[in-house]
């Protein structure tokens, strides 16, 4: 009898709630918690509130141009670069060791590049990367003419050994019996006509306020 009375009381309470415009709770949820949809909307509104706005936590790398002096520093402290050129109707990209000395790029290579370029004076592009992390890096591109020098040509001999001495500041064993790459006997000098540099960082600061600000590059 008491179970029947409880069931009747529940029905009566539900009808009273319906008449008053309040939905009866479902699945045992308290009316204060509301429906699952209401709880989801409440959570989403909290996530998109000003406190959690994307602008306060999302960070993107900024890219800016390097000054001429900064580009010189990048070239000076690195020693592996790439030469891009057109040879035999194809675009080639060759990694090389180099030394940046008195405003020119001094390096050595095999005779293959010289043959592909067809001698002295052709235009080339030389590029150096200085990565630190995925979004922290510097890059310098040099456009200019390249001259090749070989020890067996009398006209090149003075310039050749001068370039060798410059290169030996990087690798003292170069061109000796202890040379780790004895096949690379051809010296080259790139004379820059144009130099550009770029830098990416997550921490550029505004000069006026000290706050992070986007920098176009």
Task: Offer a concise description of the structure.
This protein is α+β, with helices and mostly antiparallel strands. It has helices spanning 2-19, 36-47, 68-77, 111-117, 157-167; strands at 62-65, 80-87, 90-101, 104-109, 123-131, 137-149, 186-201. The protein has a six-stranded antiparallel beta barrel with strand order 2-3-4-7-6-5.
Describe it:
The chain has 5 helices and 7 strands. The longest helix has 18 residues, at 2-19. The protein has helices spanning 2-19, 36-47, 68-77, 111-117, 157-167, and strands at 62-65, 80-87, 90-101, 104-109, 123-131, 137-149, 186-201. By secondary structure, the chain is α+β, with helices and mostly antiparallel strands. Residues 27-33 and 206-217 have low confidence and may be disordered. Strands 2-3-4-7-6-5 form a 6-stranded antiparallel β-barrel.
């Amino acid at each position: 009898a008491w179970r029947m009375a409880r069931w009747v009381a529940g029905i009566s309470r539900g009808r009273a709630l319906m008449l008053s415009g309040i939905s009866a709770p479902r699945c045992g949820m308290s009316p204060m918690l509301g429906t699952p949809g209401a709880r989801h909307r409440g959570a989403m509104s909290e996530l998109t509130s000003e406190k959690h706005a994307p602008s306060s936590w999302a960070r993107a790398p900024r890219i800016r141009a390097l000054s001429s002096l900064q580009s010189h520093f990048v070239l000076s402290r690195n020693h592996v670069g790439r030469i891009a050129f057109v040879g035999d109707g194809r675009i080639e990209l060759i990694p090389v060791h180099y030394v940046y000395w008195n405003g020119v790029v001094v390096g050595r290579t095999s005779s293959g590049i010289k043959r592909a370029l067809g001698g002295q004076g052709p235009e080339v592009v030389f590029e150096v990367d200085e990565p630190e992390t995925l979004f922290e890096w510097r890059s310098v591109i040099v456009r200019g003419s390249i001259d090749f020098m070989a020890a067996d040509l009398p006209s090149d001999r003075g310039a050749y050994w001068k370039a060798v001495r410059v290169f030996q500041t990087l690798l003292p064993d170069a061109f000796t019996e202890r040379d780790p790459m004895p096949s690379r006997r051809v010296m080259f000098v790139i004379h820059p006509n144009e130099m550009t540099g770029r830098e990416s960082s997550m921490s550029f600061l505004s000069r006026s306020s000290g706050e992070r600000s986007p920098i176009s590059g």
